[in-house]
Amino acid sequence: MSGQTFPADFSGHMLDLDEDDDLEVFSKNTSLADSSPMPNSPSSMVNQYRPEEEEEEEEQLQQQQGANDKDIFITVDNPESHVTAIETFIMYRVETKTTRGEYDSSEYEVLRRYQDFVWLRSKLEETHPTLIVHPLPEKFVMKGMVERFNNDFIETRRKALHRFLNKISEHPILSYSQHFKVFLTAQELLSHKKQGPGFLSRMGETVRAVANSVRGLRSRPEEFSLMQEYVEDFSNKIYSVDKVTQRIIKEQREYLDELKQYSPTYAQWAESEEELAEPLNGVASCVERCSKESDEQIHHMSEVLVPALHEYVLCTETLKAVMRRRDNIQAEFEAKNVALASRRADQESLQDEVDGLADRVELANNALRGDWSRWQNGMRSDLKSAFLSTAEKNVDYYEQCLAVWESFLLSQRVEPGEQRDGEDEPLPTHPIID
Amino acid sequence: MAEDGRDESLATDDESDHTALSLRFLPMLCGVTAQMLEEGSTLLRRMEICVAEAEKRNGKNTVNMQETFTVYLVETRPMDAVAEGRNQAPDSLWRRYSEFELLRNYLLVTYPYIVVPPLPEKRAEFVWHKLSADNMDPDFVERRRVGLENFLLRVASHPVLSNDKILHHFLIEEHGWKEVVYETGFQAKADSRLRALSATFRVRNPDKRFMEMKHYSDELQSHTSQLLRARARVADRLYGVYKVHGNYGRVFSEWSAMEKEMGDGLQSAGHHMDAYAASIDDILEEEEHYADQLKEYLFYAEALRAVCRKHELTQFEFEMASQELVSKKQQHEELSTGIVRTFSFKGMTNKLFGQEAPEQREARLKLLEDLIAEGEEDVQEKTVECGEHVERAWVDMHRFKEQKDKDLREALINYAVMQISMCKKGIQMWSNAKECFLKM
Q1: Between vectors from CA B355 to CA B354 and to CA B356, what angle results, nearest 5°?
Q2: Contacts of B258 in chain A (CB under 8 A)
Q3: What is the DSSP string of B2-47?
Q4: What share of chain B is helix, strand, coil (3-state, %, to 5)?
Q5: How many CB pairs under 8 A join A and B?
Q6: Is B313 helix (H, G, I), strand (E, B) or coil?
Q7: Fold exhibited by the domain A68-192
Q8: Pairwise CA distance, residues A45 & A134, whole Å
Q9: Does the model's pTM come out above 0.80?
Q10: Using a CB-CB distance cutoff of 8 angstroms, which residues of chain A are in contact with residue B27?
Q11: Residues A398, B408: C-beta atoms closer than 8 Å
Q12: What is the pLDDT of residues B310-367, one digit of tens each?
């Protein structure tokens, strides 16, 4: 691999000279000796890609991540409404604490709006077309929400933005992107936004991409075809799981509504009773307490499982885009290759171009390959943690309710153990004759 | 009075052995306990009763059309046979629901001072969506069988009702029972609705305690029906929550097929989700028994109100009779003294056309005296009738109140036990699921 000519060609979509910093990571001889072991892993991952060492590297990667030598901490908070003559929008505070050498200071605090995050992400995708960049929360909420500035909506978005930045910071390559650094540190982002490929060049890219896709790929390497299939399947599954989860929450909310109407019927009845008033009120109070627990459980599910699933639903779009971009890179190379074969003149310069494109393809494939397993592990870990948390909360819910009803039984001077334990007979039988 | 009469029964003399024995064959429904038996029912001590089975029959109804109906097998066995350990086959006969109804109507008319135990509902009410409202549904038939048995046990253990001949006949003689019931002429004794309604409005001095009891019966009816309605809706929703989790089972299973590391964990988690979804069926079926216990008292409220209405009627009739008597006496006095205290048509005509002849006057006086004598007898009767009713009804209403408090408290406890059982199942299911997720 010709490490020196790469930067210019690989970053065919980039014109930012700043990207050189980004690419230092690719070189074997990293000059970032003073910082943490992290830089080694991306280079081992991409630059030294060797099939037989794939598993080893994957392990290494996981170990690195497991070792969790986190050297950058980012929070997104404090959403505030900003009003200008033209518009009203929300600004979020992004706070960064880091020990990384390439950062001039160890603490930064900047204000960013949603558009800024969108800019960052598109820049990252531009620079690394076949890396899987974590998705942002949606621009608009699909159903129900009327007001953009609804508190729940803002809070949900804030959390997702927080997660987004943290995911980027945990990515072995993206974390060192110059755009990322600028996003975290620059007080004024506008000037940085103005740089970068102009509108026309971006248009050109799009046209090329469409043309390539129309031409079609000669042959997609099988590993990427399998990947594509997986992405399709995963997309369906995660969407289903998301839907089922939403449905469960809906049913639980309706159950809770009925429960809230149910407990007063006991209390009302108690008012016209004498002896019975006490146990009736007892049951009313139990049902009420269980309602509270149910409320908490629903809340937990909405806060933990729903966002996690939703993020991966959004991820599938990212994955599909990454696959498409990889395909395009390959298609471009193939097109030029064909041109090379048919042309007589300009063989030499064409050959150079073709070589460059071939390298680009290889880089892109390697990047995707590496990031793919990383993404899968991340997905597994994130979803596992979300499901675990949900299951734990559900156990907790039932345990709380159990305690509530058992204390009621005690209050009636009945031992919980004495009563039937889920058997069919409502009253205990007597050990009589025989 | 011990809270747990069951234990008490075991400790005492051999009579209670019989009682204890009978318990072995009692359907396990709350409310019918040794305590009730000890309180003086003779029938249930002599005889073991149960409604063992239900069967479908086809036959012709009163308008000669084909119909399908359910019959229930009523089994009885003499207690001494049971005591001696003779494995004697029980006597049995088939009865349909309408015959139970007839029996109850007879009891209502014959014992208007008793809060007569109710029958299970004729049609399924307060259903939540899974239960069909179909009378032929096996679950409904089964719950009705249990309800009918409960009815018989309550009646057979009642200090007054258990001695009734018609009841005995119902339990022992299958054929010709209906004719015997009709022969008692109880239908003629039934109070007309119109009379009863009129009494309710026009009675002047009903016993306060009965009025309070009537008010209470309204409250009881209203509260239990509200509770039952709300419970049914909760059950419906809970069913939805559990069943939707079954979708996790399906999706996890499909998803596990395409994952390497996550596959096993997802698959087994999916199975637990299926199990969770399935578990609600039994849970809610059990809760139906709780609902049935509440329904019994919903219907009991009606019986309680009937006793109060009877009081209003007897009191009203007493008042009417007294009023009649007073009026007759007054007429007599006026006629004999010639002083007209009140305005009357006779007085007017007398003034206008002159007094009547002495013979006529004598005749009328005599008539009035006869009427007064009759009237006094009538008042006497009505006083006794009213008084007896008040006395007996008060005793039974007190008995009913104690029974109700005990039964419903037990029902609430049972409900708590069911909830605990449901929670325990939930804990287990989700703990299992958690283990599976850990394997992901």
Answers
A1: 120
A2: 230, 233-234, 237
A3: -S-HHHHHHHS-HHHHHHHHHHHHS---TT--HHHHHTT-SHHHHE
A4: 70, 10, 20
A5: 180
A6: helix
A7: PX Domain (3.30.1520)
A8: 19
A9: no
A10: none
A11: no
A12: 999 999 999 999 999 999 998 888 888 776 666 666 666 666 666 667 788 888 888 8
Question: Which of left, alpha, beta for B91 (phi over 0: left; psi -120 to 50: alpha)?
Answer: beta
Residue to substitute from B251, B254, B408, interface A, most A β-carbons within 10 A = B251
Q: Are B306 and B199 in contact (CB under 8 A)?
A: no
Buried b (16+ CB within 10 A) or exposed e, B50-74: bbeebeeeeeeeeeeeeeeebbbbb
Whole-angstrom Cα distance, residue B19 to residue B21?
A: 5
Residue numbers in B near A319 (CB within 8 A): none
CA distance B119 to B124: 13
- Give CA–CA dist A420/A108, Å, rounded: 63
Q: Radius of gyration of chain B from Cα atoms?
A: 31
**A135/A262 Cα distance (integer angstroms):** 43
Q: Are B273 and B248 in contact (CB under 8 A)?
A: yes
**Cβ–Cβ gap B427/A402 under 8 Å:** yes
**Among residues 228-267 of chain B, which lie with CB inside 8 Å of chain A?**
230-231, 233-234, 236-238, 240-241, 244-245, 247-248, 251-252, 254-255, 258-259, 261-262, 265
Residue A24, pLDDT score: 35
Structural domain boundaries in chain A: 68-192, 220-413
Average pLDDT of the residues in A125-153 = 78
Among B6, B15, B25, B223, the strongest candidate for a mutation testing the A interface, having the largest count of A CBs within 10 A, is B223
Give residue-wise pLDDT tens across range A354-409. 888 889 899 999 999 999 999 999 999 999 999 999 999 999 999 999 999 999 99
| Chain B residues inside the 8 Å CB shell of A429 | 24, 28
Note whether B258 contacts A397, CB cutoff 8 Å: no
Please give the DSSP secondary-structure letter assigned to residue A434: -
Burial call A411-424: b when 16+ CB within 10 Å, e when fewer: eeebebeebbeeee
Q: Which residues have a Cβ under 8 Å from the Cβ of A96 and sit 6 or more positions away?
A: A72, A73, A74, A103, A107, A108, A109, A184, A185
Q: What is the DSSP string of A120-143?
A: HHHHHHHH-TTS-PPPPPPSS--S
A420: pLDDT strictly greater than 90: no
Calpha distance B357→B114 (Å, rounded): 55
Contact A201, A15 (CB under 8 A): yes
Using DSSP bridges, classify how beta strands B66-78 and B47-60 pair: parallel, antiparallel or unpaired.
antiparallel
Question: Whole-angstrom Cα distance, residue B49 to residue B168?
Answer: 11
Instruction: Note every long-range contact of B375-381, with CB atoms under 8 Å and residues 24 or more positions apart, other chains counting.
Output: B375/B321, B375/B324, B375/B325, B375/B328, B376/B325, B378/B321, B378/B324, B378/B325, B379/B318, B379/B321, B379/B322, B379/B325, B381/B321
Q: Which two tokens stand for residue A101?
A: 């050498």
Q: Which residues contact A115 (CB under 8 A, 6 or more apart)?
A: A89
CATH code for the domain defined by A220-413: 1.20.1270.60
Residue-level pLDDT at B349: 67
pLDDT at A5: 40
Q: Is B433 on the interface with A (CB under 8 A)?
A: yes
Whether residue A62 contacts residue A152, with contact meaning beta carbons closer than 8 Å, is answered with no
Contact A275 B20 (CB under 8 A): no
User: Residues of chain B with pLDDT > 90: what percent?
Assistant: 52
Closest C-alpha to A381, from A53, A124, A88, A65? A65
Bridge partners for A80 per DSSP = A91
Pair A57, A44: CB distance under 8 Å: yes
CA atoms within 13 A on the CB side of B425: 21
Taking CA–CA distances from A400, the nearest residue in chain B reads B423
